[in-house]
Amino acid sequence: MKKEIHPKNYRLVAFKDITNGQVFITKSTANSKENIEIEGVEYPLVKLEISSSSHGFFTGQTKLIDSTGRVDKFKKRYSKFGN
Length: 83
Known about the structure:
single chain; alpha+beta
């Protein structure tokens, strides 16, 4: 690896999803003013509004809009205008 190209503050950081309270730890350079203690170790804390643990796409709780027939309805409505 090349020297002196990586950020100096690359460290373990705790990210907390504020919608469901889940905390996960990963390496990051994100700045934080708060700290959290997990299992006796103190980590910088970054609060998130949405993460993979609360996003509907990843939890399988998304509401899918049934668009079947919408294109046909559009074509039927505007077919009188022609090309």
